[in-house]
Design goal:
Layout: E1 18-24, E2 29-36, E3 39-46, E4 49-57, E5 65-71, E6 76-81, E7 85-90, E8 99-104, E9 109-114, E10 120-125, E11 129-134, E12 139-144, H1 172-175, E13 199-202, E14 208-215, E15 220-227, E16 232-235, E17 242-248, E18 254-261, E19 264-271, E20 276-281
Antiparallel strand pairs: 1-2, 2-3, 3-4, 5-6, 6-7, 7-8, 9-10, 10-11, 11-12, 13-14, 14-15, 15-16, 17-18, 18-19, 19-20
Length: about 300
């Protein structure tokens, strides 16, 4: 595992209430969305300081910014709010409006993510639907999350059953496959720190996208994996204490999540077919807040 190291450090005294940030690779600068005096301000942060791109009235409170994405080729920012609004801000508009609400989902949005090639936007809604949009915000696919999705992956339990029925010979632990869990989970939610958020993560090549959400009918967290065309490929096997953070491994063969149980935390891995594939524990740190995001 590679350690993270700081390559540059910059500070600013003019960053009130930052709502979201993103990186503009083409100009090596940070795009940040801030709230100030009842307005949202989209700024570019360079070595020379902050430069305002645009400002507009903020949505009614409370609101959350789910995603801020900047397209370097068109110098356009896309801001997605949980109230359902999708706002496009053009840094150098031609004939178009500088600030435009290009669409809205009345029931509200719970998660949003652009594909790695920036051609597809996926949204999950508060009505338990999963929507694919093109870069021009035309709908491609809309599917519904249902309890029937759990039947897609016919997982075979290869766990070790109940502890009282396990054989505990001298060599049993040494022979046990470390990728197989010691017990079979039923998928119960974490007792604490369950924020009930939905998270989305694309595979590096953009061929598949994973969605981590709570299935209302069973009250368990489920990771659904869809193809780029919106076809459900698999769902994860039940894991007790699975919480929201989610990320594809860069190589693309495993999906990582966070498991919280008995005040301990560990990273758990799933194969693309939904089967669990090992885990490793995280060191107990008082400042660690249950894995807000997996890098």
């Amino acid at each position: 595992m590679r350690n993270l190291r700081c390559v540059q450090l910059s500070t600013s005294d003019h960053t009130p209430d930052v709502k979201a940030t993103t990186w503009d690779v083409s100009r090596n600068s940070v795009i940040c969305l801030q709230e100030n005096d009842g307005f949202l301000r989209l700024n570019r942060w360079t070595e020379d300081g902050l430069h305002q791109i645009a400002s507009w009235d903020r949505p009614p409170s409370p609101y959350n910014v789910l995603d801020l994405h900047f397209f370097g080729d068109t110098e356009t920012a896309c801001v997605i709010f949980d109230n359902g609004d999708i706002v496009v801000v053009r840094e150098t508009p031609a004939a178009e409006e500088k600030i435009e609400i290009v669409g809205s989902i009345d029931v509200g949005i719970t998660a949003a993510s652009w594909s790695p090639d920036e051609e597809i936007l996926v949204l999950t809604t508060k009505a338990s639907t999963f929507i694919y949009l093109t870069r021009d915000f035309e709908e491609l696919v809309s599917v519904e999350f249902t309890a029937r999705d759990l039947d897609v992956s016919d997982h075979v339990s290869v766990g070790w059953g109940k502890k009282e029925t396990q054989f505990k010979g001298k060599k049993a632990r040494a022979l046990r496959d470390p990728t197989v869990p010691e017990t079979v989970d039923d998928g119960r939610l974490a007792e604490s720190n369950e924020l009930r958020e939905t998270t989305v993560s694309w595979r590096g090549d953009g061929a598949y996208v994973a969605v981590n959400s709570i299935e209302d009918s069973t009250q368990r967290r489920v990771i659904r994996i869809y193809s780029r065309e919106g076809i459900l490929d698999s769902v994860s096997e039940p894991v007790n204490g699975l919480i929201g953070p989610l990320s594809w491994r860069p190589a693309g063969n495993l999906v990582a999540g966070i498991q919280l149980f008995h005040h301990k935390r560990q990273v758990v891995f799933f194969e693309r077919n939904g089967l669990r594939h090992g885990q490793f524990p995280l060191r107990p740190l008082d400042r660690f807040e249950d894995g807000k995001e997996i890098l």
